[in-house]
Design goal:
Blueprint lengths: L1 H18 L3 H22 L3 H6 L9 H24 L6 H27 L3 H22 L5 H26 L1
């Protein structure tokens, strides 16, 4: 019976988080993060040199799918930042600002990934930058764990995406 009450309470917290979402500001921040991610792609240059020089592992997704998933990832982290920043009560604001600061630091590291990997052709440094981004995302997950249920799940999914990319960058560095 206690398990059912806990599950019900957890879903109540998720529905409460959904009701508090400020859609307009969340979409604005999401579009800002998406366009800044696309700007980092423009700075990073074309991917044809990397495709010709490096041998990709079998677990790597095709380049076109990765572009699409990275664009979704940039928009997704913007939704998380907007939801955490603008979807809380006043008494949770301090913890929310701490989570947002960690997420912004992780996002800044993510903006460096594409130029490092494709322009400077350095997958080992890309691995280190992704590892720093994983660390900041993990800190955001820990600081967000007590105050949000929905955003904790979203940050955890983003952390899985970052871990996959971190793994792929170290594998590419080791193969080549």
């Amino acid at each position: 019976m206690k398990l059912i009450k806990r599950i019900n309470y957890y879903f109540d917290r998720i529905s409460h988080d959904i009701r508090l979402i400020n859609i307009k500001s969340t979409l604005i921040i999401s579009s800002i993060t998406l366009f800044s991610g696309l700007f980092s792609w423009i700075i990073g240059g074309r991917a044809d040199r990397v495709v010709l020089l490096y041998i990709f592992p079998r677990g790597a997704l095709p380049l076109g799918i990765m572009y699409f998933l990275w664009a979704i990832s940039f928009a997704y982290i913007g939704i998380i930042i907007g939801g955490v920043a603008y979807g809380c009560e006043k008494y949770k604001k301090r913890e929310a600002i701490k989570s947002v600061a960690f997420l912004i630091l992780a996002f800044m590291c993510l903006l460096c990934v594409y130029p490092l990997f494709f322009k400077s052709l350095s997958p080992l440094i890309t691995f280190i930058v992704l590892l720093v981004s994983v660390f900041f995302t993990f800190l955001a997950l820990i600081s967000c764990f007590r105050i949000y249920s929905l955003w904790t799940i979203c940050i955890f999914l983003h952390l899985i995406w970052l871990l996959y990319n971190t793994y792929m960058s170290i594998i590419i560095a080791l193969i080549n």
